[in-house]
Amino acid sequence: MMAKDDLIEIGTIVSAHGIKGEVKVYTDSDFPERFEKPGKRLLQRPNQTKLDWVTIKRGYYLPGKKLYVVRFEEITDRNQAEELKKSKLFVEKRDRPQLEENEYHVDDLIGLAVIDQETRGKIGQIVDIYPAGNDLLVVDLETEFLAQHFPDKSPEKSQVLIPFVTDIVPVVDLPEGELEVTLPPGLLAL
Fold it and tell me: Is the pLDDT of residue 190 over 60?
């Protein structure tokens, strides 16, 4: 069985579509070809740990819905498609698309330390990324950083959003497990 660390979740099946076994998939991926190109994907049904291989026959995007309609070779009717509701789709990490310079896979950024480029002090750690006009890094602030810079703030308010743009995040060092930030005044005001 393949280890979950070797996989990337790319979407969740939300419902059946039509009567021929197609499903609607909410995507967690920035790569539409994962739902449009034929090929093998891994499927995990709800409340199961076992993964099954499925083969995408075809797929297309539903404009305005953030959903894809996908047809699997193994699913031939609506009843089978209904059984897949809430199932997760995965690809192997080794099948990740190659990126251009200064582009990163989200799962490579999660967990990176956030370092103040000027002081070299650790600000926090990336725990999530929110897609927006420019992606926003969700950073859990270090307790020491929070106490030093915001002594009156509650530790529960320890997350901040940092725009993932070159002017603010000039260095991403994946081998070192960190990225450096140059923060404009007031950006971390909680």
Answer: no
The answer to whether domain 4-95 has CATH 3.30.240.20 is: no
Give the helix/strand (H/E) hosting 125. Answer: strand 122-130
CA distance linking residue 59 with residue 11, whole number of Å:
13
> CB of 27 within 8 A of CB of 11?
yes
pLDDT of residue 157: 60
Rounded Cα gap, residues 22 and 78, in angstroms: 7
Mean per-residue pLDDT over the chain, rounded: 86
Measured between alpha carbons, how far is residue 136 from residues 26, 68, 117, 124, 185 in Å? Answer: 21, 24, 18, 14, 17
Task: Work out the number of other CB atoms within 10 angstroms of the CB of residue 161.
Answer: 16
Long-range contact list for 106-111, CB < 8 A, 24+ apart? Answer: 106/30, 107/8, 108/174, 109/137, 109/172, 109/179, 111/177
Classify domain 106-181 at the CATH topology level. Answer: SH3 type barrels. (2.30.30)
Tell whether pTM > 0.70: no
R_g over Cα of the chain: 20
